[in-house]
C-alpha cells in the first residue's frame, strides 16, 4: 500500500518550531492479508462483466414493486405499461420521452414546463380500478356469495379534480362511489357523483356538524346514494334533529371500534383506542335511541377500519370476521342492515419484497384480498343465517399510488475527497498530544496488520479526541485537517467502504414527499434513464430547502445510499430520477416549506400516435407569486414597492422586468436557459407556464403588464 508511505518529510510551517525527534516517515504497511472487507456496495456492482437493463432491474427491484406497470426498456429508460399485464408492446410508454415532451421549450415542440414534474397516467388508474372490481367479482362468483361488491374512493388520498372525475367515470359500470371526510370533500363528491352511477355510494365519514349533515341529506334529494356514518355517538342527535328540520330521512351507518388491530405505524389508528368509532356499548346505545325515535330502519351500514397497509390476509380475515359478527348482531337487533364497509387497508408493495411483516410491503395481491373479505363475511353470515350484505371498501392508496410518477433532476453532486496528501502532514501529526499520538500509532499498527475493524475504532477515537482538543484550543485547524486526511487515507488503503456522495436535487421533500419526512415512509426512487449503464456511485439525495431534514438517506432495500451514475458521464441533458408509487396523500399533505410550491403536472394517455402517448393536460407548478399569496403576501404590492425603489436608483426598466419575471417563475432552480445581464432567466420558455389551453406569457413586457394587474 504505497500511499501510506508517501508522506513528505516534515517541514515546519512559519510560526512553528521543528521537533528534533521526528524523521518525517510513516510506517509502510505490509500487504493486506485479512479477509476482504465489506465495501458497502450492492453485490451487483462488484462484477466487471458488461452491464444490462436486467441487472438494473434487479438492483432496484423494479419487478418487485413495479409489476405490472413499470419496467426498464431496451434503451435503458423506465417505461410504463398503462394497461398493466394487458398492455401490448406498441402501447408501452417511454418515461424519458414524456419528460422530454413536457420540459423541452415550445420552440422545440415541447411544453416548456419546469421541473419538478408529476406525470399522471389515467390509463393506469383505470386498470387499477378495473382490477380491484374484477378481483371482487371473481371472489363473489367463486365462493357463491349472495350479493356484490361496490367500493368507494376516499378523496382524501388525492383530491385532484381530474383524478376524482376519472374514478367516477371509470367506476360507473361498477357502481363505484366516493368517500368524504369534510365539508369541502363532501361538496366535491356531491358534484362529481352527479355524473356517476345513481347506485354509487357517497359515504360520509369524519366529524360532523349540522351543516355537514344538512349537506349530506340534501344530496339524497338530488338522487345521490348518501350514507351518513356515525364516528361518535353524539353525532346521532345531530343527524336526527337535522333530518327532521330538513325533512329528509337519512341512511345511517356506524363505525365500530374493533378489537382487531395490527402493529406498526399504520395500525395506530385502529383497535379499541383508535381515534374514531363506537364501542360495543355505544353501538347498543345508538340502536336503542334509533328504536325509540322509530328510525332503526335507517341504520343500514357497518363501517370499520383495521388500519392502513394491512400486512397479511390472516389479520384481515380476523378483523372482517369480527365485524361480520357485529353486522349479524345489528341485524338480530332489528336494524335494516345491508352493507359492510371494510374501510381502507388494502396495501401496496412499496419495497417489492411481498412481505407480511413490514409497513413497506404486503403479503398478498388484489385477488387474495378480495377472496379473504368475501370468504370471511360469507362464513359468519351463513352461520347466523343472515343474508349476505353488499361489500364496500375504501381503497384509496391501492387505487391511486401507481398512476403518478414524480420526476426531478439532480443538478450537482459532491466530489470525492482527493487522495493528495496535505503538505507537512507528518509535521502536524507529530504536534498532536500524547494520547492522540497513541491513537495514531495504534491506528497505523492496525493498518499494517490489515485489521479493518480495529482500524475503524482507532480512527473514530482519534478524530473524536482531536475534535475535543480543538474545541479546547489545544490544536489548530491544520492539525484537525491532518487527522481527517490520515483517517481518510487509511480507510481507502485498507479497502473500507467508498465514500457516499451527496446528490443535490431540484425538489422540496416537504412539498412533494412529505410522508418521507413526517413518518419515515419510503418510496421506490431510481434514475429513469441510463439504466443500461453500470451505476458507479453510492449517493444520498439532498433537497433545495434550508433544512437538515431535507434529505433522502434511507431507501426501500434497507440501504442508506442509492446506486447512481456519475453526473459528469451524463450526455445530452440532465440526470433525472423518479419517485414511484407516490400518488396517494403526498400532494394533499405537502406544505410550503421555504415557499417551494407544488410541481408541474402533465396528464398522459396512451394513444396510437407515433410516440404512443398524448398529453391531455399540462399545468405549471405554483409560481413565486402563487406561494407568496398563499402566505397572505400581495405580490402586486410587493412589485410596486420594488419598482419604486428601482426608479429611485435610476436603474432602468430592465431591472423591473427581471423582478416581474421572477414573480412568475417557479421557486425551483432553472437550468439550460440563457441568463440576462441581471442574472435572471431571459428565455421565457425556460420558466413560463403552460395551461390546459397552452397559453403563457412569452415576453417580459407582457409579464410586467400582467404583474400590474394581479388580483388578490
TrEMBL record:
<dbReference type="GO" id="GO:0008295">
    <property type="term" value="P:spermidine biosynthetic process"/>
</dbReference>
<keyword id="KW-0456">Lyase</keyword>
<dbReference type="Pfam" id="PF02784">
    <property type="entry name" value="Orn_Arg_deC_N"/>
</dbReference>
<feature type="modified residue" description="N6-(pyridoxal phosphate)lysine">
    <location>
        <position position="156"/>
    </location>
</feature>
<dbReference type="InterPro" id="IPR029066">
    <property type="entry name" value="PLP-binding_barrel"/>
</dbReference>
<comment type="pathway">
    <text>Amine and polyamine biosynthesis; agmatine biosynthesis; agmatine from L-arginine: step 1/1.</text>
</comment>
<dbReference type="GO" id="GO:0006527">
    <property type="term" value="P:L-arginine catabolic process"/>
</dbReference>
<protein>
    <recommendedName>
        <fullName>Arginine decarboxylase</fullName>
        <ecNumber>4.1.1.19</ecNumber>
    </recommendedName>
</protein>
<keyword id="KW-0210">Decarboxylase</keyword>
<dbReference type="GO" id="GO:0009409">
    <property type="term" value="P:response to cold"/>
</dbReference>
<feature type="active site" description="Proton donor">
    <location>
        <position position="546"/>
    </location>
</feature>
<dbReference type="GO" id="GO:0008792">
    <property type="term" value="F:arginine decarboxylase activity"/>
</dbReference>
<dbReference type="InterPro" id="IPR002985">
    <property type="entry name" value="Arg_decrbxlase"/>
</dbReference>
<dbReference type="InterPro" id="IPR000183">
    <property type="entry name" value="Orn/DAP/Arg_de-COase"/>
</dbReference>
<dbReference type="InterPro" id="IPR009006">
    <property type="entry name" value="Ala_racemase/Decarboxylase_C"/>
</dbReference>
<dbReference type="InterPro" id="IPR022657">
    <property type="entry name" value="De-COase2_CS"/>
</dbReference>
<keyword id="KW-0663">Pyridoxal phosphate</keyword>
<dbReference type="InterPro" id="IPR022653">
    <property type="entry name" value="De-COase2_pyr-phos_BS"/>
</dbReference>
<dbReference type="InterPro" id="IPR022644">
    <property type="entry name" value="De-COase2_N"/>
</dbReference>
<feature type="domain" description="Orn/DAP/Arg decarboxylase 2 N-terminal">
    <location>
        <begin position="148"/>
        <end position="401"/>
    </location>
</feature>
<keyword id="KW-0460">Magnesium</keyword>
<keyword id="KW-0745">Spermidine biosynthesis</keyword>
<feature type="compositionally biased region" description="Low complexity">
    <location>
        <begin position="684"/>
        <end position="694"/>
    </location>
</feature>
<feature type="region of interest" description="Disordered">
    <location>
        <begin position="681"/>
        <end position="702"/>
    </location>
</feature>
<comment type="similarity">
    <text>Belongs to the Orn/Lys/Arg decarboxylase class-II family. SpeA subfamily.</text>
</comment>
